[in-house]
């Protein structure tokens, strides 16, 4: 289709023919290029004005960004402080566990337990079938578990301390309680109670038991205690007397030589004298007495008791 325009000007006439291609070009320029040009020009003008005069929206967005930046910085600082606090807490728990391990090893030795049964240098044996499912531990659950572990360690520490005190008390009682033979070598030659006196032939009370052996052999303390007498006494010859506390005392008579002094502390099993035949004696032996609250009692049950 062709469109023709006729024009008459100052006696002149003209003819303009518009083909389809020309019409399309004119439509494109009128409806596309021209509005686009106006939009671009308006955008540039608006941008220049926005740069010169920021709008309230831009100011609000900038303020929000600054606030978020501060919150991120605060969160990072708080996280670092929390990690430092957790590291300090973990260090204290590790030190507490090391103290408990040392205490457990002491208790194992004190109680004479099998080291292989209670080995505090190795992790306790654990196991089981593969568990199905399970969830990842969150921060609140982790902190709760950490607090519970700390409380358990404090509780176990107190319980083990009480147990240590009890074992020490038990061991102390075992140390000061008379038990065992007063000689390392020898045999029982006379019992406690009425017997025929070897010098007079009369029936008299014998306040202890006699252990015969070789001259100069060891005489040992049957319990820990403090020496309250060391010297000669009528009938006993060279005598050692030890006070063990709780009303108990022991005597060791007829010694060839006393090896301890008054006031000296002795241990259970310590050599305190050499076997002799001083005083009223027919040969090398030790006269052994056990006194409870100042009264001589039959030493048999103490001699038969395990060390």
Explain this structure.
This protein has helices at residues 20-52, 56-110, 139-176, 300-304; strands at 3-9, 12-18, 187-190, 193-196, 203-206, 209-212, 218-220, 225-233, 237-245, 248-258, 265-266, 271-275, 285-292, 295-297. It has 307 residues and is of the alpha+beta class. The termini are far apart. A hairpin with a 2-residue loop joins β13 (285-292) and β14. The protein is 43% helix and 26% strand. The protein has three domains: 3-52; 77-122 and 142-176, no CATH class; 187-304, Glucose Permease (Domain IIA), CATH 2.70.70. α2 (56-110) packs parallel to α3. The radius of gyration is 53 Å and the shape is rod-shaped. The chain has four helices and 14 strands. Strands 3, 6, 7, 8, 9, 10, 11, 12, 13 and 14 form a ten-stranded antiparallel beta sheet that branches. The longest helix has 55 residues, at 56-110.
Features:
single chain, 307 residues, alpha+beta, Glucose Permease (Domain IIA), 3 domains, 10-stranded antiparallel sheet, 4 helices, 43% helix
Note poorly predicted spans.
Answer: none
The averaged pLDDT comes out at 78
Please state the overall shape, judged from the principal axes of the Cα atoms.
rod-shaped
User: Structural class of the helices, strands and pairings?
Assistant: alpha+beta
The first-level CATH class of the largest domain is given as Mainly Beta
CATH superfamily of the largest domain: Glucose Permease (Domain IIA)
Assign the CATH architecture of the largest domain: Distorted Sandwich
Task: Spell out the helices and strands N to C.
Answer: EEHHHEEEEEEEEEEEEH
Query: What is the count of β-strands?
Result: 14
